[in-house]
Design goal:
About 60% of the residues lie in helices and about 0% in strands. By secondary structure, the protein is mainly alpha-helical. The radius of gyration is 49 Å and the shape is elongated.
Length: about 325
């Protein structure tokens, strides 16, 4: 085994006991001691990192959001983000910083850069990032060494080493291997969102069902409802004039009217006269209403001449309705 920084290569008692062979021969002293233990030298360092590097790693791991990790504010431009990432990536790369936790800090820096350097991801993070982290903490209660695990965030599948290589064109020749951990929460959350989208689609379809049914019924009614048998006015479709036998009301029919309605013409003519009288009454009401309003206006202005003209207004629909009511029995 290699020597531990700050400690001697092995206990003296063990070194002394290994100085002799079974026969008490001291000739094996050097070979036995060199085979199992390395002698400490005054030039070998006690540790391969500085206290400043360890403090910087601990500071990064305490950060709670991506802006704090990179040391920029929310108004930082893309150039600011890249410049800060270049500085931190070189400082925390595991080949340069051997402090405990440097690899994790390096991954956190890479994840923060991947999100904040992408406009769409940065927008989503600004809108939902803090709430998403709180929800995940309340659901999973998952922490690593007292710090939030940024590899469980929505960009936990980002490989920090790949980002470094793309950014620096290869960077340090590294023997370290960074493995993407399977993010079970991310996969579960993705499947949960997909199930929610499917359920939401079904709910929308169920809510739209009454509207779709009414729409289908209205479309079907246009196909199955036949044209009216007659019309009180001449049109291109109803061009043949007829008159009812009772009130002699004119109405218009199609060419094949008698052939299609043989045996029910009397009933149809009764319906024609009812429609005609109903229209006549409506016209009479409008004429009387207009005449009375003109008389009231003339009296309001104390205009005798205008009042006389208003009283002389004709009401032809009312006159015709009065005439036929005396000659015929109305329904």
């Amino acid at each position: 085994p290699e020597s531990t920084p700050g400690e001697p290569s092995g206990p003296r008692s063990r070194s002394r006991s290994n100085s002799f062979g079974r026969n008490g021969d001291k000739s094996n002293l050097n070979s036995n001691s060199n085979a199992g233990y390395s002698q400490p030298t005054s030039s070998s360092p006690h540790r391969e990192y500085t206290s400043e590097q360890l403090s910087a790693v601990q500071q990064v791991k305490k950060c709670k959001d991506y802006y704090e990790i990179l040391g920029v504010n929310k108004e930082a431009t893309d150039s600011d983000v890249k410049r800060q990432y270049r500085k931190l990536a070189l400082q925390f790369h595991p080949d340069k910083n051997k402090a405990p936790g440097a690899a994790e800090a390096f991954k956190m820096i890479g994840t923060a850069f991947a999100v904040l350097s992408d406009a769409e991801k940065r927008k989503q993070y600004d809108l939902y990032g803090s709430e998403e982290q709180q929800r995940k903490r309340s659901q999973t209660q998952y922490y690593e060494n007292g710090y939030y695990d940024y590899n469980r965030g929505f960009d936990g599948d980002i490989n920090a080493d790949e980002i470094f290589n793309m950014f620096f064109g290869g960077g340090f020749p590294s023997g370290n291997v960074y493995v993407r951990r399977p993010n079970r929460y991310r996969e579960t959350h993705r499947h949960h969102n997909q199930n929610q989208e499917v359920a939401s689609g079904y709910n929308v379809l169920l809510q739209m069902m009454p509207v779709l049914v009414l729409l289908c019924l209205s479309l079907m009614s246009t196909f199955f409802v036949s044209d009216p048998t007659y019309s009180l006015s001449r049109t291109q479709k109803y061009e043949y004039e007829r008159k009812t036998s009772n009130l002699e009301v004119p109405y218009f029919v199609k060419e094949n009217f008698e052939r299609e309605n043989k045996g029910s013409i009397r009933r149809i003519e009764q319906q024609v006269e009812e429609d005609y009288v109903s229209n006549l009454r409506a016209s009479c009401f409008r004429e009387r209403n207009y005449k009375e309003s003109m008389i009231w206006r003339a009296r309001n202005f104390r205009d005798k001449d205008l009042e006389d003209r208003a009283k002389g207004l004709k009401t032809p629909s009312c006159d015709h309705l009065h005439k036929i009511s005396q000659q015929y029995v109305l329904w």
